[in-house]
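Recap from last week: sequence in, structure out.
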Amino acid sequence: MSVRHVFHTKAKGNLALRMLKEQGGLCAYCLEPTASPVIDHMIPYSYSHNNSASNLIAVCPRCNAKKGARIFSSLGAIREFLRPRGSQGASHAKEVPL
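Predicted structure tokens:
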């Protein structure tokens, strides 16, 4: 593993922790506490090549994996997609106003 790769990985981890702190320690999608946040591109990088702060958000690994490279019209649409079927907002994806 190169020094550059280690630095980049560590910098991304620091950014994820800083963003998570700004979000009150909660995943931006499911609104559950997470101790191991990852950075997600709300509009996937593969579509937009956009690394600006307005496109980045701290999320839990579960939500990040489930969302994948899908494009949604809003944060609410992402939360709706991640809500378990038959759920009224309990469990993993809570219903909250945007």
